[in-house]
Design brief:
The chain has 637 residues and is mainly beta. Helix content is 11%, strand content 40%.
């Protein structure tokens, strides 16, 4: 019996020891760091990302950004274990040598603050920093700062942008530095970026082929002159389709992963994986706007108007709209065929409509919260608090009639009187007469080409800041070098936090050329009306850009395989049937071969049927695939 007990106790102790050992092995070990550094990292949610109160070695090594006081730190050797930091901010302490940081080739920003012991910053010359901030360190001279700058010449092409100036920025204040371009007909600042002139570096946009120079000035003295070379751009010309109506493209957070939807021929589509995917059919219109829920929170509402006159809001039917037939939507409103105006709001997590006005005529194009009544009067929509928890809308007549032009809250009537509406949330707006003999109101660019604002212009051509007597001198033409521009919105998990080194820009030029650059790959496409969106595919392997051509067709482009896809092409095409006789046989091979050899009078009635390589280019590769397809077809007979 004693032996059995002894064995049992031994077994129990053995299990306990194993259990404790297992628990000890599972408990994460904290990173080996100076204690003051470790304590600072504990307070950083981005370092201790699982919020377990321990910064492990793995978490430390993966850190992209560190902000540390170096008081009490004797060595920065611990930094060498970082794998790929992007931003490092240090202050105080006694460390004087930061040259070990040169090993971080992808480091974008470095800041040194209040370090009077640092006398040498030459190590920065061996780095690729975009930003280098020095504060409370007057011992570092302007000459030392200039010595670590790298100056960039620009080689780009028409429609694309490139970097000029000096990096890193941050060592001088914005009022101490300036960039200037000699010939702005060849290249000009990429103005969709903020304030490029008073920066040490900026993107320039290629406007026409040629060469020019730029100057870099510090405290009014030119310290560098660089070159800008712009070459011609050859744009891809895609096949045009006649008879297409322009689709409606709108923003969407609910129906589309790409933040855009396309309404075409009664079908609402989302964009995904380079395709148009149907979301809803028998659709008359789509609208995205904003309203308030029962808690007074500002929320987005996406409204589908179906061809039968019913509404759907954020994917739900309205709870109190039975029997109502709507003919128009917009501005978060629904309009019936009798001209009744209903506002949409959320109540108890459901959506309903409230009648706010009788007598709708039309929306005002350049005003967001007004419409014109059937008597010609401007009607202002304002918030309404029904009780302590519910917020709705109400409509107020303004007395402004016979509007011939408007912008924002300014209106010109048939007598050339300029009126302004001043909103009062929850109550009736006030209306004021601002000027007479006014023929225009809207946004215009001022004479320096960089400032713009709302102005009104009188019949003698004098421009005033809208609603005032302050004159504004306008430029004859807008300073933009392009119709639209921006940055791809690509679903990279770390794009906005840490991945600013990549290039995801697009421009649409005035001659309707879409120029896109994705991580160094440049694509130019002719006859484009607008860029729509860009997104990764669902498997994360491809990036598709979507755009609308001037003929009304929607296309996608895949950066990985360099292929274009006409998403508006819904007709069924028999592969290989180039002579359009509804069959594919050897005669199609002969016809296509003659066309490739440019034989006189050779014609492809259905060119798309020959594009088996699906790149919108017909060549010998398509001929090879056509031959293989015919052989396969023959073997199956």
């Amino acid at each position: 019996m004693k032996k059995i007990l002894s064995l049992a106790m031994g077994f129990s102790v053995s299990l306990s020891a194993t259990s404790f050992a297992s628990l000890a092995a599972d408990k994460p070990e904290k990173a080996d760091l100076p204690e003051s550094v470790y304590q600072q990292l504990l307070e950083d949610d981005y370092i201790d990302n699982n919020k377990d109160g321990i910064v492990t070695e793995e978490e430390y090594r993966a850190a992209k950004s560190l902000c540390l006081s170096l008081d009490g730190v004797e060595s920065i050797d611990f930094l060498e274990r970082l794998e790929n930091p992007k931003y490092l901010y240090f202050s105080n302490g006694n460390i004087s040598d930061f040259s070990p940081l040169t090993k971080f080739k992808d480091l974008e920003a470095l800041q040194l603050n209040d370090m009077p012991q640092v006398m040498d910053i030459s190590f920065v010359k061996d780095m690729n920093l975009l930003k280098f901030y020095i504060s409370d360190m007057d011992q570092i001279t302007d000459e030392q700062k200039i010595a670590v700058m790298k100056f960039h010449d620009a080689d780009t092409s028409v429609g694309f942008a490139a970097l000029i100036g000096a990096t890193p920025t941050g060592m001088f204040t914005y009022d101490q530095i300036s960039l200037g371009i000699s010939d702005t007909s060849i290249a000009d600042f990429d103005i969709y970026k903020d304030n490029p002139i008073n920066n040490s570096y900026a993107d320039v946009f290629g406007k026409s082929a040629g060469s020019t120079e730029y100057s870099f000035k510090l405290k009014g003295v030119e310290i560098h002159k660089g070159s800008i070379n712009v070459s011609e751009t050859t744009a891809t010309v895609l096949p045009s389709v006649e008879g297409q109506a322009m689709p409606k493209i709108d923003s969407s957070n609910i129906y589309s992963e790409a933040d855009r939807v396309v309404l075409k021929d009664g079908t609402l589509y989302k964009l995904a994986d380079g395709k148009l995917i149907p979301v809803a059919e028998n659709v008359a219109d789509f609208d995205m706007d904003y309203t308030y829920n029962e808690n007074g929170e500002f929320i987005s509402i996406e409204t589908i108007l179906y061809q039968d006159g019913t509404l759907e809001v954020n994917g739900e039917k309205l709870i109190n709209a039975d029997g109502l037939k709507f003919t128009k939507i917009g501005r978060g409103l629904g309009i019936t065929d009798s001209g009744y105006v209903y506002s949409i709001r959320q109540e108890n997590s459901k959506y309903r409509v409230d009648l706010i006005y009788k007598g709708f005529d039309r929306f005002l194009e350049h005003s967001s919260l007004e419409f014109i009544s059937d008597t010609g009067e401007v009607i202002q929509i304002e918030l309404k608090k029904n009780d302590s928890t519910t917020i709705g809308y109400q409509a107020f007549p303004t007395g402004i009639t016979d509007v011939v032009d408007s912008y924002g809250y300014f209106f010109i009537d048939k007598d050339k009187v300029l009126w302004e509406i001043n909103r009062h949330v929850g109550s009736e707006p006030s209306v004021r007469k601002r000027a007479e003999d006014v023929v225009y109101v809207g946004y215009q660019y001022y004479s320096d080409g960089k400032v713009y604002g709302c102005v009104h212009i009188t019949s003698d051509g004098t421009a005033y800041r809208a609603g005032t007597t302050i004159k504004a001198i306008l430029t004859e033409t807008a300073p933009e070098s392009y119709k639209s521009a921006g940055r791809f919105i690509v679903e990279f998990s770390n794009l906005y936090m840490y991945d600013s080194s990549g290039s995801y820009n697009y421009h649409v030029t005035y001659d309707n050329t879409l120029c896109m650059e994705y991580n160094g790959k440049k694509v130019a496409i002719a006859d484009v009306d607008r860029y729509i969106a860009a997104r990764k595919s669902s498997d994360g392997k491809s990036v598709y850009a979507y755009f609308l051509k001037t003929d009304g067709t929607v296309w996608s482009y895949c950066f990985e395989n360099d292929k274009y896809y006409n998403l508006s092409n819904t007709e069924t095409i028999l592969k290989g049937d180039v002579n359009a006789d509804s069959k594919f046989d050897v005669s199609d091979i002969v016809t296509f071969q003659k066309w490739l050899l440019n034989v006189q009078n050779s014609e492809l009635k259905n060119w798309k049927a020959a594009d088996l390589y699906e790149d919108n280019i017909l060549d010998v590769f398509d001929m090879s695939l056509l031959r293989k397809l015919l052989i396969k077809q023959s073997s199956n007979l």
